[in-house]
Amino acid sequence: MVQSQESFMFTVGKLGAGMAILLGERAHLIEFPSLLLPPGATTGSIVNISVTQNIAEEKKRESDFWALQEDILNTYGTSSPEPPKLELRNVTQTSVTLEWAPLQLANAQLRSLDIYRNRQRLAAIPSPRSNTSTKLSGLSLDSEYTFQLVLRTSAGVFPSNLLRIRTHTMTDTSGVSVCFGTVQDPDLLEAAKNALSEMGAKWSDRIQIDTTHFVCTTPAATPSGAEASGSLTTAPGVEYQKALHLSIPVVQPQWILACHTEHRMVPIHPYYLGASPAPPVHSGSYARPQSMSQAGPARSPPASAQQKAASRQSLPPPASPAASPPSSAKPARAAPPMAPTPEEGAEGAGHTPGHVRKGTMSKTFRFPPDGAPDPRPADEAAAPAVPPADERPADAPGVKEEPVEAALPAPPTVEVPPPPPVDKEPHPSPSAQELADEEVGETEEVDLS
User: Compositionally biased, Basic and acidic residues: which spans (predicted)?
Assistant: First the structure.
């Protein structure tokens, strides 16, 4: 409905490009768009302007406004994001695997999805719209933890339920989750699966998020029909490569049998793929043959201290020190020790103090004149001064002892007489002149013509 009002008369005072100045009867001056003036109106033209209210249009627009508000309420006001529900999928001695249903965000915008451990933020979940599980490692053995998800959206913060979990002990093997690869021995594969069933563990043919070990005897994949033809592909399988990429331990089936036999988690390093594990007790002979790279000649163990001592005792005893000269003779300076000959080693027990070993020069020795016979005995002159290297005892100076690989026979029992009593009387100290004579010796003029 349109309500009429009286009209007002104005005179166009100034007409511009976009605006016109209108002058009223009561000296009213207004600016009016020149586009709304009647066609042909110029400066000085008189125009009437009337204003009316459109009530029907006002009601229509009000109805449209409240319909829009109702749509906004039904779309964004009646539903809100749901808090995630956290559940336990698997737990081991040092890790837990958690999962939850897909997020229900309604019409809110996702900000973040964080995982909390013991009320402290641990990390943000990657790809929260599509990812519905996570695995947390590095936990302590037989310890209790609390986990919680916190969903942050444009509609607010929505925490999940609080999940309390206790990690397993070493005797609890129910957390083992195995993915089987290529096992060449079907009996060994069947024995490993039976052992997993008795342990309360699980296995599959595909690597999952809670897979703890990848079990196989060869990294090669077995194609369809390979069992009948007896051929295997040399290329590594897809699951084997995925296990290496995810840092999942690759072990042999003997590890499962060892855990089942000992009723606890055993170390996996002796059972890595490529090692030669010993078959566990009561599990059958499933030992893998040793590879050529690990095979080698057996080395003899190093000789023990008792064997080395026995080898030293089997050598001839060293010669006894010589007896001191009579007090009337000049005291001679002791010559440096020399290696005894085999004859001296055999008769070392009967040596007397003061005897000069063979191979040393006597103080009273003189070179004979030209043409004169050798004053020494024939057997002494013919005897070598120093024994050969292969006849020297192991403890002689300058001889390097070689390690003895095998034990030598025990030496025969030799009765050694006790040493003679030591003379307690002090010897007169030599004078400086005597020491000089001892060092130089008696001089003798030799005719060189």
Answer: 389-403
d(C-alpha 61, C-alpha 213), whole Å = 69
Say how many Å lie between the first and final Cα of the chain, rounded. Answer: 166
State the CB neighbour count (10 A cutoff) for residue 68. 9
In the chain, residues under CATH classification 3.40.50.10190 are: 177-224+232-271
Q: Which residues in the chain are classed under CATH 2.40.50?
A: 1-78
For domain 1-78, give its CATH number from 3.30.2010, 2.40.50, 2.40.128, 3.30.70: 2.40.50
Query: Which of 407-432 are b and which e, b meaning 16 or more Cβ less than 10 Å from the residue's Cβ?
Result: eeeeeeeeeeeeeeeeeeeeeeeeee
Residues 204 and 211: beta-carbon distance below 8 Å: yes
Higher local confidence (pLDDT), 165 or 373: 165
Looking at every residue in the chain, the average pLDDT score rounds to 75
Listed ranges 42-56, 273-287, 335-349, 423-437; the one with the highest mean pLDDT:
42-56
CB 222 within 8 A of CB 232: yes
Distance CA 160, CA 158 (A): 7
The pLDDT of residue 334 is 45
In this structure, which topology does domain 177-224+232-271 adopt according to CATH? Answer: Rossmann fold (3.40.50)
Q: Say what the alpha-carbon torsion angle 416, 422, 428, 431 is, to the nearest 10 degrees.
A: 30
Q: For position 107, what pLDDT does the model report?
A: 87
Q: Using 50, 70 and 90 to split pLDDT, how confident is the model at 407?
A: very low
